[in-house]
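Sample intake sheet
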Amino acid sequence: MTNGVPLRDNPVLRRELIERVQGTKVAVFITIWLLLLTGILVLAFQGTVGINQEFGLDIASLGRVGRELYEWVLFGMTILVLFLVPGLTSGSITGERERQTLVPLQMTLMRPIDIIVGKLAAALAFLVLLIIAAMPLLATSVLIGGVGIFSLIRGLGMLIFTGLVLGSVCVFISSRFKRTTGATVLSYAVAIIFAVGSFVGLLVYAIAAFSVNDNNSEPPVELVAVNPFAGIADALPRSADGDVFNDTFTPFGGLRTMIDELGNDGFFENGRGNRGPYIWIYYVVIGTGVLILSVRGASRAVATPAETER
């Protein structure tokens, strides 16, 4: 329910879903998505086996290999989602303006939030479809071992949440622009900042500390609390005590080690040794706030026809 129209009866959602699945474009899109993830899976398997052999670990214990495959595929899915979501949502409102169909929508009995939620839900539904299509690849790591159902659900849940938050921001941007081109450029800029901004902040902090000869000052772990990669990595189970040679040889494993090291003296210190802060909880709280503010802001933007649209 979105203040007026139940989500299942939302005409905007129905129209968007029909438009997204019509023709062969969606089949080609899903095929490319699966081919990319399959390539990541194959390369990750070869690399994981090679690295484990180099460090003399027991390959017979496939649990570690299965978990690393899962994290590599999930990492690849995260990159693709950050790339796809702006393309799916940046033209949601500007497209209506360009087709001159926004005013008729505003004149219907639907409330502004119904329009925004319908647009956002359609993009989220397509994202969920892509994740479902990739489930057989993720099931490979489950069959090998090392990945439980709870870990699988938590990782995918964080991925969907990330897509939802970024999608809401892109819809808000779309509601403020008149042309799709400008909204798309800004949406991708936001996605890039969302993905790497925290790491740039850490680098700048380290350079600044080095320039003043403060080598004992470590960057605050709070800087990565708004990063999707750090949030997803922290939500996944840790191996052993967080040491890089005991955790997974994946980007997520390296991020967990970094979070633990930086978190020992951080604001979120919880006295659990190398466990560090619960970054993923902070990530969810901030993301939820951004989601609510973005939806409300976009709803206000389409509440009444603008002067140029009347």
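Comment: The chain has one domain: 7-309. The chain is about 70% helix and 0% strand.
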